[in-house]
Write a structure and sequence with these properties.
It is a single chain. By secondary structure, this protein is of the alpha/beta class. Helix content is 39%, strand content 18%. It has one domain (24-231): Metal-dependent hydrolases (TIM Barrel, Alpha-Beta Barrel). Bound molecules: zinc ion (ZN). Zinc ion (ZN) is lined by residues 7, 9, 26, 77, 179. Zinc ion is lined by residues 7, 9, 26, 77, 179.
């Protein structure tokens, strides 16, 4: 069985890494150069978190420079947060710059959204993106979920899920993640599959299909191989 973790901040040493999963590591622009040398098996998402979007021009310029790199397969996490970070006057323009970059490069967006659903939908309607937008750490209520589905959003779930919303999300719009949580990706899959009364294997193959469609360049999991790692240095 293959496990895909589409959003994580946890960097494992390759030796300790679970060989049966493949990750999209979220890194800040300035971390990318070092991270890409250290973690050969995984891909990256790169962006400026809304909490730190103030005075981010230099970071943004650098993000534009590195984002074409093939190992960066998603833009973000980016988004809107009503509870933390600068005002929306600052957050929204920075978010929109990520969207422009995503459209220009043809790379999906990983979205962080806290109590800003109206604003998020407004930006999406205004910008009419062609790239997938994945809301990460999703645990909204069913009514909100239905609204977001109509707007064309995709969802990534982690350790905390809303079981009622899980029934509403179309199977082809779902991803799994560990973010900063303790729960392993295998357990996240298990919990999500259980909430849907699905067999873990059937659930996992659906997620694999979704990953192949949205992130066609994300490599399938492969065991750590020291010889190969050293050759590629
Ligand atoms: Zn995160």
């Amino acid at each position: 069985m293959e496990f895909y973790d589409v959003h994580t901040h946890q960097i494992f040493l390759e030796e300790n890494d679970d060989p049966y999963h493949s990750c999209i590591f979220d890194v800040y622009p300035l971390e990318f150069e070092v991270a890409k040398e250290s973690y050969n098996r995984h891909a990256f998402s790169c962006g400026i978190h809304p909490w730190y979007s103030e005075d981010s021009d230099t970071q943004m310029a650098y993000l534009n420079e590195i984002a074409p790199n093939a190992r960066i397969i998603a833009i973000g996490e980016t988004g809107l947060d009503r509870l933390k970070g600068p005002s929306f006057e600052i957050q929204i323009p920075v978010f929109k710059k990520h969207i422009e970059l995503s459209e220009r490069l043809g790379k999906p967006v990983i979205i962080h959204c806290v109590k800003a659903w109206e604003e998020l939908i407004r930006v999406k309607r205004e910008m009419r993106p062609t790239q997938p937008w994945i809301i990460h750490g999703y645990r909204g209520k069913p009514e909100l979920t239905e609204q977001l589905i109509r707007e064309g959003f995709l969802f990534s779930v982690g350790d905390q899920i809303n079981v009622d919303s899980m029934q509403v999300i179309p199977p082809d719009a779902l991803f799994c993640e560990t973010d900063e949580d303790e729960m392993s990706i295998r357990d996240v899959y298990q919990q999500a599959a259980h909430s849907l009364n699905m067999d873990l294997e059937v659930f996992a193959s659906q997620i694999t299909e979704n990953v192949r469609r949205v992130f066609p360049t994300l490599e399938p999991p492969r065991p750590y191989d020291r010889d190969q790692e050293e050759e590629s240095d």
